[in-house]
Each structure stands twice: as structure tokens, then as C-alpha cells.
Amino acid sequence: MINLTINGLSVSVEEGTTILEAAQQLGFPIPTLCHMEGLTPYGACRLCVVEIGEGPRAKLVSSCTYPAQEGLKVRTASQRVLRARKMILQLMLASCPQSKTVQDLASKFGGIQGHPFRQEYEDCLLCGLCVRMCKEQMMSGAIGFRGRGKDRSIGTPFDIRSDICRTCGGCMYVCPACQLRCTYNEPEKAVCGGCQNLPPPCMEKFDDMSCYMDPCVACEICKE
User: Fold this and answer.
1) pTM given for the model
2) Which domain holds residue 165?
3) pLDDT tens figures, 127-183
4) What is the 3-state secondary structure (H, E, C) of 185-217?
5) CATH label of the domain that carries residue 100
6) Looking at the 3D structure of the chain, how many domains does it have?
7) Where are the alpha helices (DSSP H) in the chain?
8) Which residues pair with 60 in a beta bridge?
9) Residue 207, CB half-sphere, CA atoms under 13 Å: how many?
10) Domain membership flag for residue 148
């Protein structure tokens, strides 16, 4: 068994367990987008970042791909983690604002009502869920990644209709951009705030760790 500390609590996990899985055992909420049980961890969205280590050697890692290590110290909601998470959510909203999944994540984990980036209306976040679902669960592999950098996209080879596609719909089922769509499509209304939750105020009192309760009970803590 491997012993590590998450948010000050000790936990023992089997070898090969990821930080995300270990945190979930203790009930610590960590947002994810590209992660899904039953599919190979990919670490594309980076929403599941946590801070490991202490002092100047502390660093951010994706918890869905980073294995638990003996004596590792993990923080799932430090100031550094929250800043990185907010930036990632803002970039997602700038890229794909009509995704109900992204809107909900932005409200719950970032308290975001806007972003400083140029607004676009993409229909893909490049999370790779559909590619992994097609290959690993449907045993088809009809779609995959193409190109690099800003030209990276998902589709069939040479944009030709695939002969091995089973038209099962699994790719659409797991896609965070296809599942539910927000109705606003005007730039000034891209982030409607309809699902807005208040950001955790406990960071004003506790510099290194935000309240990890779900729902947040920071207000009750700060009254003491």
C-alpha cells in the first residue's frame, strides 16, 4: 500500500492509484472534463490540476494521470490551484461557451461570469473523450486526432466516411459540447451566469486551502 497526504488527511491506496482516485476516496471534489471511468486517463483538459510538494519545489500536476507516491503531499484547492483552474475554465468558455457542461463547471468551480479572451464558438474542446470511447469501448477506432497546434481536430482519415463506424452514437453521448447546449449565442451573453454559484469566500481567511465541502460551507466556517 502507498501512503500519502491529501489536504492534511492521510490515505492509503494500492499501487497504480492516481491522485484523482485517492482524492475521490476521501470525498474531495476535483473537477474533470476529459476524464471518464472506463477510459484511459488522458490529461487533456487540465481541470483536475492539484498542487503537490511544498515550498518552492511545489508544482501543479494533472491528478487523473499522476500516480500516488509514498509520502506525497497533495492540496486540491490551494490558491495556486484555484487560479489555474479559473484560467482553464475561462479559456474553455472563450472556446466553447454553448457547452452546458462547461457553463456548469465554470459556475461551480470558478464563480466565472466573464473572461478576458476573444470569444469564439467552437464545437469541440479536443478533450479526446469521443476518440477514446470509439477505440476502447466500441472497439472501432473510426475517428481520431488530426493535425497539430491550432489545426488540430477530430474526424475520420481524409474526411472520408468511415467503413468501420457503427453509428452507435457513443461519441456524441460522451461529448461535453454535444450533450447539452446553452441557448445564448451573442458575444456579450456568452457566459449567461444562469447557473452561477458564489466563489468560496474562505480563501480570504485561509490562504493555502479553500473549503472542499460540497456544497460549500465556507460561510459557516468563517462565522467561528
Assistant:
1) 0.80
2) 129-174
3) 999 999 999 999 998 999 988 888 899 998 888 888 899 888 888 889 998 866 665
4) CCHHHCCCCCCCCCCCHHHHCCCCCCCCCCCCC
5) 3.10.20.740
6) 2
7) 19-26, 79-95, 100-109, 129-132, 170-174, 218-222
8) 51
9) 0
10) yes
